[in-house]
Specification:
Blueprint lengths: L1 H12 L4 E6 L2 E3 L6 E3 L2 E4 L2 E4 L6 E6 L4 E4 L1 E6 L8 H8 L4 E6 L2 H7 L1 H11 L5 E6 L17 H4 L8 E7 L2 H5 L3 H9 L4 E4 L6 H8 L5 E2 L5 H9 L3 E5 L7 H4 L11 E4 L5 H7 L2 H10 L4 H8 L1 H6 L16 E4 L7 E6 L2 E2 L2 H4 L32 E5 L8 E5 L3 E2 L2 E2 L7 E7 L8 E7 L7 E4 L8 E5 L2 H13 L3 E6 L2 E7 L11 H16 L8 H7 L16 E2 L4 E2 L2
Parallel strand pairs: 1-6, 2-7, 8-9, 9-10, 10-11, 11-12, 13-14, 14-15, 19-24
Antiparallel strand pairs: 1-4, 2-3, 4-5, 7-16, 16-17, 17-18, 19-20, 21-22, 23-24, 23-26, 25-26, 25-27, 27-28, 29-30
């Protein structure tokens, strides 16, 4: 350690040439907001010189370019990218994202501790710095059958791992407010560590009680009013823009220089096709500036404010002594990453080849029983039928009621009102439960879409107009060991296999990206009007408005074989 420190000091003072010097450019000072013309000297994984001239063993001309700190995605589920952590690393790091804080909540709800171990082993090999928060809600709800259970006794062995930050999003906020013993045990064990929040629409004294448990961050704000209340009460708001949940525009007004120390950016759930077409956090930065946000505010949120919120005290500024996570961009407005340094290493294709592979897990996790069209029948009931209402661009849904048409002794779909069938099928091999209901807002006119990605318990979720097509789509998921399937008129017209826990592909991210493009076309052929129909299917099993009492929900209850509401 002493030898390393001496080398940093010698290279910082200029007594020795730095390992790498970036010459001729400017860096964005996130303290003053200035663009500073300067060399940037790097020794190993650390910045050792700014605001002056340096000689280097390797000198790189970046004339006309701007250096900003590496971007930090403060909340995401890598599983939702549909690729392994190694492929996510290769896919996203070139966009300037040098640190991600992930919650392996999805794989943990399928495989439990095995899934968390897989992520920690992967995080030790990736070039980007993947930090892990331990999944707090496994199972996520008593309303559905999950594949695993993670009480506090199973989480504690991971607590001291060098890649672990703390406890992941505590989405069971009713359990916190009402002092559920399981929740209390987890919260008590992680007092003093970071505890991530998840409390959509929670406000008033209930929010106060939730925050009194030591919860500090929130990525579920969907309005400026909600975000401001939570900021006033000490929360750090993680502005989210994913493939389904798109809150950036709703929160643009709070991204100001004054509030930026209390803001960060996250994607939560974003797939490779959207990343290829739009970008990642760089897309959020460009979009925010285009809509009038000051560059200082959004770049702070993307780096230094994010680092401070999660206790990463070594990164987020271009300054001596700070981690050399650097992004060389063309301009603040365009935010096009041209060269990236991750812990002082220039990111190249050859660098990714230095990583050790990690063996996949959960390759036999889809254990659902075969189904046929008769399994999707819904008996006629008196009065109105509960219907889940999809809200495009949001994962929260509405509880609606309609008087639906009948077909014999069965309740039928109502295409005039865009109401089709939805079913959730237990796939962990525990009880074979199956529940049916109705959903509005997909735009489907025919066929079916099925998925083993079904938040949060990840059973099979299938939507469709035809019961025969729904059965074919669900059964096909078993054949391919999980994934997404589109069926039209008795024929599979699109699919992607996700055999790692039914959530992630074994293929390179480029293959996943291209397959998703074809899959989306197959879904559009059914008439869907949703921008991201597959993740919308995946989020349907979530509670409709989570903070309301059970009798006010309109969600599918797999374990009880009925619709609540």
């Amino acid at each position: 350690m002493t030898e390393r420190l001496e080398r940093l000091i010698d290279q910082g003072t200029g007594r020795e040439p730095a390992d790498i010097v970036l010459k001729g450019g400017r860096f964005f000072d996130l303290v003053t907001g200035e663009l500073v013309a300067s060399d940037i000297a790097i020794s190993g994984d650390t910045i050792v010189g700014t605001c002056g001239g340096y000689n280097g063993k390797t000198e790189i001309d970046i004339s006309g370019r701007i250096v900003v700190p590496g971007f930090i995605d403060t909340h995401l589920h890598i599983e939702s990218s549909l690729v392994t952590p190694h492929e996510f690393d290769r896919c996203v790091l070139p966009y300037g994202v040098t640190t991600v804080i992930c919650d392996p909540h999805e794989i943990a709800n399928v495989l439990g501790a095995e899934g968390i171990r897989y992520f920690l082993e992967s995080a030790e090999q990736t070039i980007m710095d993947i930090r892990v928060q331990l999944s707090s809600c496994v199972p996520a709800t008593h309303l559905e059958t999950s594949g695993a259970d993670l009480p506090i006794e199973k989480l504690l062995p991971f607590r001291d791992h060098k890649k672990v930050i703390g406890l992941a999003e505590f989405m069971n906020f009713p359990g916190v407010i009402h002092k559920d013993p399981v929740c209390m045990a987890k919260l008590a064990a992680f007092q003093g560590d970071h505890i991530d929040g998840h409390a959509p629409l929670l406000s008033g004294n209930d929010l106060n009680g939730y925050l009194s448990a030591g919860i500090r961050t929130e990525h579920e704000c969907t309005s400026a009013e909600e975000a401001l209340e939570k900021i006033r009460k000490g929360m750090h708001i993680l502005v989210r823009e994913g493939s389904v949940s798109k809150d950036l525009h709703a929160l643009i007004s709070i991204i100001t220089e004054r509030l930026s120390p209390h803001l960060a950016l996250c994607t939560d759930d974003r797939n490779p096709l959207d990343i290829a077409e739009q970008g990642h956090l760089d897309y959020m930065i460009r979009t925010a500036i285009k809509h009038g946000v000051e560059p200082l505010a959004i770049y702070r949120a993307a780096s230094i404010s994010a680092a401070r919120a999660f206790g990463l005290r070594d990164r987020g500024l271009v300054a001596p002594g700070w981690r050399a996570d650097l992004v060389i961009i063309d301009s603040l407005e365009n935010c096009k990453a041209e060269t990236i340094f991750a812990a002082g290493r220039e990111v190249t294709p050859e660098l990714f080849a230095t990583r050790k592979p990690v063996s996949p897990v959960g390759l036999d996790s889809v254990k659902a029983r075969p189904v046929n069209a008769a399994h999707f029948g819904v008996p006629v009931a008196d009065g109105e039928t509960p219907v889940i209402g999809v809200m495009p661009g949001k994962i929260i849904t509405e509880h609606r009621r309609y008087r639906l048409p009948m077909k014999g002794n069965q309740t039928a779909v109502d295409l005039d009102n865009d109401i089709i069938k939805v079913a959730v099928i237990e796939r962990h091999g525990k009880n074979g439960n199956h529940a049916n209901g109705f959903v509005q807002g997909f735009g489907l006119k025919k066929g079916a879409i099925a998925s083993t990605v079904g938040h949060d318990s990840h059973n099979i979720c299938v939507v469709g107009v035809s019961e025969d097509d729904m059965a074919m789509a669900a059964n096909r998921l078993g054949d391919i060991k999980g994934g997404f399937v589109v069926v039209e008129d008795g024929k599979v017209t699109g699919e992607i296999a996700l055999p790692i826990a039914g959530l992630m592909s074994l293929e390179p991210y480029e293959t996943v990206r291209d397959t998703l493009h074809d899959l989306r076309k197959a879904a559009y052929a059914l008439g869907t009007t949703l921008e991201e129909p597959f993740l919308q299917v995946a989020f349907l099993p979530l509670p409709v408005i989570p903070h309301l009492k059970i009798s006010d929900m309109g969600m599918v209850d797999v374990d009880q074989f009925k619709l609540i509401g």
